[in-house]
Amino acid sequence: MRHYGRVTVSAAHVKSFFEVALDVGEVWSIRDADGFPAPENADGRRATPFRSKKSPAERVVNTVPDYFGFAVVGLPITEWRSRWLSGLLRNGLLDERRLNRLS
What we know:
The protein is an alpha+beta fold. It has helices at 11-24, 54-63, 77-90, 96-99; strands at 26-31, 71-76. It has a two-stranded antiparallel ribbon with strand order 1-2.
């Protein structure tokens, strides 16, 4: 797994992410031939970045040099909730407290 720069996520961003993703019905991320990135946050924890809209994911691959060449990938929210969340949690790539926001 490659390592990338640090990322930060405020509680307001997390709340907004879940509200929009649940409303729209999909989430977006980026990936390359090596898979989905998992950069460190300010606390040194790794997380796979997801976006509730396609345009912010596109902006990342178009403006952040570490992510040039990555593809933007959409996932149905039902698949993300049923398959991805448990794997992200199991792999330490999601804070369990954030799962409570999906209830």
